[in-house]
Design a protein that fits this description.
This protein is α/β, with parallel strands linked by helices and 251 residues long. The protein has 2 domains: 81 residues, no CATH class; 152 residues, no CATH class. Helix content is 39%, strand content 16%. It contains 9 helices and 7 strands, in the order H-H-H-H-E-H-E-E-H-H-E-E-E-E-H-H. A 5-stranded mixed β-sheet has the order 3-2-1-6-7. Strand 2 and strand 3 form a beta hairpin. The longest helix is centred in the N-terminal third of the chain and has 23 residues. The two termini are 42 Å apart.
Length: 251
């Protein structure tokens, strides 16, 4: 985390909550500073550090570290939730379309969609069966995220059992609820003479053939992949369609 971002969070929480202000105890001694409280919390969130391991680094006991974690999460939601924990509105959608169009010449592209596995070291033994997949070998929790080119995460669906894949997660995700309820912002663009009214997400091959998904082209980097029949076919397909916008599957 950059120093500017950390200081911004500390200053915002200090102005918002009395818990993060630098206070004195009954005998006039200064207690823990806002920097100590935020440092202890971020170490727990970022590195999964146990609460009782912070006594030497920030001079903080286990109970105090847990209190900092709880208050930090509540205050961050209250202070930054209205801006960073919300769905894109009509103005955000237009900005995303314009940004992706300028940077990548992809008309109508909203964001990129993908899932990733987070290892769960302390997974209970009774749950390991549903949170473990054979290709990972350890219990994991799946995070589904939608991210724009400026690394803004517009959607996060976390906590799904690691034994599932991207399709199972998509079936449970609330990502397209607004589209199904016809509350999503309108997206109007034209590609190859065809007009579209809904934006699309950039994904890869495992996803379904839906109109709202555009799959990326596979580009082999090793010699074996370039010489294979599938690699040559995909390269020819990619270079043959590169001068136009991506093919809209499912339309």
């Amino acid at each position: 985390m950059r120093r500017e971002l950390f200081v911004r969070i500390v200053d915002a929480l200090t102005d918002y909550s009395e818990y993060f202000k630098w206070r004195r105890d009954a005998i006039g001694r200064k207690g823990l500073s806002p920097l100590q409280k935020c440092t202890a919390t971020i170490r727990q969130l970022a590195y999964a550090s146990p609460a009782d391991s912070l006594d030497e680094y920030v001079r903080m006991g286990e109970r105090t570290a847990l209190d900092c974690l709880i208050n930090f999460c509540r205050c961050v939601i209250d202070v930054f939730g209205a801006r960073y924990l919300r769905r894109p509105n009509a103005a955000d959608t237009q900005r995303l379309l314009q940004m992706h169009g300028q940077r990548h010449d992809f008309l109508g592209m909203l964001d990129s969609l993908d899932c990733m596995h987070w290892e769960w070291r302390n997974c209970p033994v009774a749950w390991k069966g549903q949170f473990t997949r054979g290709d990972y070998g350890a219990p994991t929790i799946i995070l589904e995220a939608v991210t724009s080119t400026d690394l803004w995460i517009w959607h996060a669906f976390f906590g799904v059992a690691g034994s599932r894949n991207d399709i199972n997660v998509l079936n449970e995700s609330p990502l397209f609820n607004a589209v199904l309820q016809e509350n999503a912002p309108d997206v109007n663009f034209t590609v190859n003479g065809t007009s579209y009214t809904k934006g699309y997400y950039l994904t890869y091959g495992i996803y379904l053939e839906w109109a709202t998904f555009v799959k990326s082209f596979h580009v082999p980097r090793i010699p074996k992949g370039k010489k294979s029949r599938r690699g040559r076919r995909l390269q020819e397909r990619m270079w043959g369609e590169r001068l136009e916008c991506p093919k809209f599957v499912g339309q």
